[in-house]
Each structure stands twice: as C-alpha cells, then as structure tokens.
Amino acid sequence: MRQSPAPREFLPLSPADFQLLLVLLTGERHAYAISQAAAEQARGRVPLELGSLYRMLARLKESGLIEEDPVARPSPSGPARKVYRITRLGQEVARAEADRLRGVLAVADARLAHGRA
Prior knowledge:
By secondary structure, the chain is of the alpha+beta class.
C-alpha cells in the first residue's frame, strides 16, 4: 500500500493552483463557477483563464488535491457539468502553502524594514 504524500511535497504551489484550491475550500463548484469565484476573490491579481483551467483541474485531480464528483450536475443552459471538490490532502496542501507564504512574507518584511533603516 502506497503512503499518501506529505503536503510539503507539493510546495511551492503556483499562484493559480493555490487560488483554485482556495476557491474550492468554500465548497464544490463546476469549472465556470471556479473561474468566476477565482476572479472575484483575486480581484484580477491571479487570473484563471478558462482554457488553462481545465488543464489545471486535470493535473490537480491526478495529484489527488481535488476530486471530481462522479455524477455530472444538470445545467439549465446546456449539458450537465462536472463538479469538483477539494480533498483532505488538498486542504492540507493549501494550509501548508499559506504557512510557507507567511514565512516568506516575514523574511521579506524583516529585510525591507532593515533596508529602510
């Protein structure tokens, strides 16, 4: 039996991957809803383009950070939609990335403050 990878093995995350995981922390969504929530959440700082989003979803699914609901959801405007949710490992990786970024910012703040003195 293969042991689950440690969250730190996925770090550092790309800004777009981190943004996608943060969106899915708020609940499961289909791809277009993910892109809309990411745009709103990031305020344009980390754009998630719909074309690359599907590649990201496939990669994050393959790595075990997200999963796809096996039952597509009906859509009022067209074909059924695939719905994605974050896994426990994905939650742990998002938490680890947030901790890593806090550490990076602490070092940056200290060095920038020292540089201004």
